[in-house]
């Protein structure tokens, strides 16, 4: 698999889809990719301990707000394992999700430690509303759109 990835001639590799950390072979794969000269990003739901990720791998960790229905799955000790190049992402469906996420960012000083991304859930939260709230609160986070849902049909898989 590493030879196939390397054969594409692209140095940046992102491992995502479902929950990569649920697969016992992901850490050895990351190490092999790094040894082959790749910069590796791991997009995780944040429900599994990220401390197993090798040095140099960049974590993009979701934190699940209330309207996701997955808030209980957040593995809060992961916040202690974030490194400066990591990112924390919130996908927001409502004002309630925004306020919960804003409070998490402020309570844990996340914006001082890592890049923080707020993304409106496609079709559920108007990006204009989210951007207004961010400006009103002067929250030091980046607004991110779910581009894959703007480029391809929202229900497309494998893109």
Explain this structure.
It is a single chain. The protein has 159 residues and is an alpha/beta fold. The chain has two domains: 62 residues, no CATH class; 77 residues. It has five helices and six strands. It has a six-stranded parallel β-sheet, with helices on one face. The longest helix has 13 residues. The radius of gyration is 16 Å and the shape is globular. The two termini are 19 Å apart.
Range of strand content: 15-25%
Please give the number of β-strands.
Answer: 6
Spatial shape = globular
What structural category arises from helix and sheet content? alpha/beta
What is the arithmetic mean of pLDDT?
A: 94
Helical content stands at 25-40%
Arrangement of strands in the largest sheet = 1-2-3-4-5-6
What would you say about this model in short?
The protein is of the alpha/beta class. The protein contains 5 helices and 6 strands. Strand 4, helix 3 (95-107) and strand 5 form a beta-alpha-beta unit.
């Amino acid at each position: 698999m590493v030879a196939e990835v390397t054969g594409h001639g692209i140095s940046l590799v992102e491992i995502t889809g479902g929950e990569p950390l649920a697969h016992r072979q992901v850490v050895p794969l990351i190490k092999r990719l790094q040894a082959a000269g790749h910069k590796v990003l791991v997009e995780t739901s944040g429900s599994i301990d990220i401390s197993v990720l090798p040095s140099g791998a960049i974590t993009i960790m979701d934190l699940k707000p209330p309207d996701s229905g997955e808030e209980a799955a957040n593995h809060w000790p992961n916040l202690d394992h974030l490194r400066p190049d990591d990112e924390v992402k919130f996908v927001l469906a409502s004002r309630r999700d925004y306020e919960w996420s804003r409070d998490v960012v402020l309570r844990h000083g996340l914006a001082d430690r890592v890049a923080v991304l707020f993304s409106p859930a496609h079709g559920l939260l108007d990006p204009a509303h989210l951007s207004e709230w961010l400006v009103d609160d002067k929250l030091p986070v980046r607004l991110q759109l779910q581009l894959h849902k703007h480029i391809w049909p929202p229900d497309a898989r494998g893109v």
